[in-house]
Amino acid sequence: MARPEQVLVLEPQHELKFRGPFTDVVTATLKLTNPTERNVCFKVKTTAPRRYCVRPNSGIIDAGSSINVSVMLQPFDYDPNEKSKHKFMVQSMLAPYDMTDMEGVWKEAKPEELMDSKLRCTFEMPLENDKTHESESNKTVSSSTSSVKTEHSALPKSASASLDDGEVKKIMEECKRLQMEVQRLREENKQIREDDGLRKRKVTSMATPHSAMATSVVRDEGLSTRVLAFCVLFFVIGVIIGKLVL
């Protein structure tokens, strides 16, 4: 009995391309889409498991959704004369409604329930023109990035739209510190005004007794002058009366 047709939609459909250089990990992305109304279990297998790392290599794709599978080729010595014989297979099956153990479902699956799609792998090295173009592009991007950084450094922080969380946090802390400093200066100013008022009140209170004493002295001096004047007047009157009697 023939196997059912694959229900998943693969992008790309037939070929995974890995573009060098291969001195570092090279990643290709495989998109799996489930257009059905059922959940679908899937597995990704390869003929060279030691050369690739696949994440995720199995799982469940919900109805009407999709998932991206990262296929990471490990570093190796590339030989342009050697053709790649590596292949991948995407195996799938409709998930049972009462599924609880995915591994158990795969073990108990019947051959007529399984669907699969195969993809081949190709390796490509960038051409010299491509390398030159990429180098120039990298230089352009680098110069653009440096100019953008210069512009941002010339702008005030409040006008910059590319601040990350760390810079925003530093700005907030600085604002908080400045607010605390302003509050501290206000309190010091208030204390200085209070001390100055207290000092003025003390000076006023100290000056008041002296003024009272001065007023009392003036009054006493005025009183003494009046008494003396009366005494002189009475003396003159007494002398006149004495002469008249005589």
Automatic annotation (TrEMBL):
<feature type="compositionally biased region" description="Basic and acidic residues">
    <location>
        <begin position="128"/>
        <end position="137"/>
    </location>
</feature>
<keyword id="KW-0812">Transmembrane</keyword>
<dbReference type="GO" id="GO:0090158">
    <property type="term" value="P:endoplasmic reticulum membrane organization"/>
</dbReference>
<dbReference type="InterPro" id="IPR008962">
    <property type="entry name" value="PapD-like_sf"/>
</dbReference>
<keyword id="KW-1133">Transmembrane helix</keyword>
<comment type="similarity">
    <text>Belongs to the VAMP-associated protein (VAP) (TC 9.B.17) family.</text>
</comment>
<keyword id="KW-0175">Coiled coil</keyword>
<feature type="transmembrane region" description="Helical">
    <location>
        <begin position="227"/>
        <end position="245"/>
    </location>
</feature>
<keyword id="KW-0256">Endoplasmic reticulum</keyword>
<keyword id="KW-0834">Unfolded protein response</keyword>
<comment type="function">
    <text>Endoplasmic reticulum (ER)-anchored protein that mediates the formation of contact sites between the ER and endosomes via interaction with FFAT motif-containing proteins such as STARD3 or WDR44. Interacts with STARD3 in a FFAT motif phosphorylation dependent manner. Via interaction with WDR44 participates in neosynthesized protein export. Participates in the endoplasmic reticulum unfolded protein response (UPR) by inducing ERN1/IRE1 activity. Involved in cellular calcium homeostasis regulation.</text>
</comment>
<dbReference type="GO" id="GO:0061817">
    <property type="term" value="P:endoplasmic reticulum-plasma membrane tethering"/>
</dbReference>
<keyword id="KW-0597">Phosphoprotein</keyword>
<keyword id="KW-0832">Ubl conjugation</keyword>
<dbReference type="InterPro" id="IPR013783">
    <property type="entry name" value="Ig-like_fold"/>
</dbReference>
<keyword id="KW-0472">Membrane</keyword>
<dbReference type="GO" id="GO:0033149">
    <property type="term" value="F:FFAT motif binding"/>
</dbReference>
<dbReference type="GO" id="GO:0005886">
    <property type="term" value="C:plasma membrane"/>
</dbReference>
<protein>
    <submittedName>
        <fullName>VAMP associated protein B and C</fullName>
    </submittedName>
</protein>
<feature type="domain" description="MSP">
    <location>
        <begin position="7"/>
        <end position="124"/>
    </location>
</feature>
<dbReference type="InterPro" id="IPR000535">
    <property type="entry name" value="MSP_dom"/>
</dbReference>
<keyword id="KW-1017">Isopeptide bond</keyword>
<dbReference type="InterPro" id="IPR016763">
    <property type="entry name" value="VAP"/>
</dbReference>
<dbReference type="GO" id="GO:0005789">
    <property type="term" value="C:endoplasmic reticulum membrane"/>
</dbReference>
<feature type="region of interest" description="Disordered">
    <location>
        <begin position="128"/>
        <end position="163"/>
    </location>
</feature>
<dbReference type="Pfam" id="PF00635">
    <property type="entry name" value="Motile_Sperm"/>
</dbReference>
<keyword id="KW-0007">Acetylation</keyword>
<dbReference type="GO" id="GO:0006986">
    <property type="term" value="P:response to unfolded protein"/>
</dbReference>
<feature type="coiled-coil region">
    <location>
        <begin position="168"/>
        <end position="195"/>
    </location>
</feature>
<feature type="compositionally biased region" description="Low complexity">
    <location>
        <begin position="138"/>
        <end position="148"/>
    </location>
</feature>
